[in-house]
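--- STAGE predict ---
source: upstream dedup step, 1 unique chain passed
mode: sequence only
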Amino acid sequence: MTDLDDTAPARAIPRAPAEGLDARLVVDRGGFRLDVELTAAPGEVVALLGPNGAGKTTALRALAGLVPLTDGRLLLDGVSLDRTPPESRPVGVVFQDYLLFPHLTALDNVAFGPRCRGATKAEARAQAAEWLDRMGLAEHAGAKPRNLSGGQAQRVALARALATRPRLLLLDEPMAALDARTRLEVRAGLRRHLAGFEAVAVLVTHDPLDAMVLADRLVVVEHGRVVQEGTPADIARRPRTDYIAQLVGLNLYRGRADGHTVRLDAGPAITTSEELSGPAFVAFPPSAVALFRDRPTGAGARNLWRCEVAGLETYGDRVRAGLTGELPLAADLTTVAAAELGLHPGAPVWAMVKATQTHAYPA
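--- STAGE serialize ---
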């Protein structure tokens, strides 16, 4: 979690109507239909987040011109790109597997873009050397991709994309090929580079930490549609689908609120600290759930449910218990507490959550 404390330069986001990205991406592919509105101002980093098959990669390929639009619009800085071929668009792409040319050095890989845009060989190499230096890779300019680490290859691919000075930068799962330790370092570096990028950046990822750390705004896509968008803090605080709740590690329920009580659509009522009326969500973290083998004495009936352990997963010194019963939920506890409770699949337990540890908000 080190990256969350990384102090990137503050990013000023101008909002001019004719600048930035203004798109409605409609793509029909067999039985799947993508229909996503996507806008971003210059200097803004937007993350497209969603489960496999949601349509986020299709959206990215449509932005790049690799997939034709069935309908909609694609405006960049006020100019329509609908009929512009991919090679003529002011778009830079960092692919998931980087796609570096194996026979070229790092320097010539980065110089490839400027050369394609009309720069002389000397000019392109000079620009490439400058970008490699910015990425901290000046000493690796003569290295072939096979001699680069995963993090170094990722930075070369980013430099290659930025060397053409794109007005739209697309990043397709840029951390997917890296091991966990390398991701920490590369994510922090990428955050710094994106903070200084003056055009629009769109990041496609399924990793919530990448999205939370790198993006100014999240757009969550499920089944080809936008289901929620907002700042990382807003999304984490108020998830609106089960997929999002699982991403940010919350138990999420939907029901109807009447004062401090939310009667769930499928299940019991939950007492909350907030007072609401009408359709509402209730969320709380697994760490807020207390488990007991016997019904707690002196505890009221509010937010106390009889459950059964469906499964157990270990995360370091913590155990996450998946529970079924009156209220399906996830609970986190220490390995010591799990042992003392004698938890195992099928074990009956009582689950309790304090009203002050729940968060209710309008649906």
